[in-house]
Here is the input.
Amino acid sequence: PIPSMASGEELRKYYVQRAEAHQRMGQIALAIQDMRLVTSKYLSTTPQLSVNDWSTLARFEQRGGSMVQAIDAIEKARSSITPNISGNYMFINRLAVSFYAQLGNFEAAEKSLRDAESTMVMLRRSPNLGLYGKSWEADLDAARGIYYMYQGKWVEAERSLRRAIRLRQEQFAQVEINQLVQTDEARALRSRQKLNTKQEIAYRQLDLAQAILMQGRLVEAEVNARDGLSLMLEVFNKNSTEVGAALNRLTRIISEQG
Here is the structure.
């Protein structure tokens, strides 16, 4: 139930959590509806939360809404980033590369990729590199891999995507071994981190499967597609958009084998 007598921030948290639950259950239209409500009525004044909310809306719009709205939301997320949270440029640019390339705007996609590369040069001098470096580098390699895929450069795409997957796997291992404060909030944070990292690995596995398929290595492509689907099923409901897309990718690869 919607909390009664709740503050704007409490309502924001409620609708964000409900939107994420809708997404995992495959109810993407309801997820978009909730995130549109958040960004129109309950947008946080905290820059990091604002970036999170706009980028969440962007991802949901891309998966089941309007690509125009997805682009608008990702640019609003980008404009919400302040100097003290500049690491966010990495995942925002990764999403932007994908969105613009999907629309065929390769000039804008390349601009976002170059921005990610120049930002990473700066971030390598950040005192937070040890904490977030693997995630930042994985976002950069994923952005490159996605860009190369849309350019039809399958060998280059495979190389970048393999690096992105390896870095995410190392990030996942790091999350698991980090000492956990025994509180509900800390446990919930670790659970979200693990789910988000699994999700990113799954997407890149499916991208890698496509890059390998286009080089004619059908059996290897199938193995990677099955790995991606397996991870998607750990994160999302079997009726979700994400699992459906993974099944479609696997089906195409199997059909190519005759």
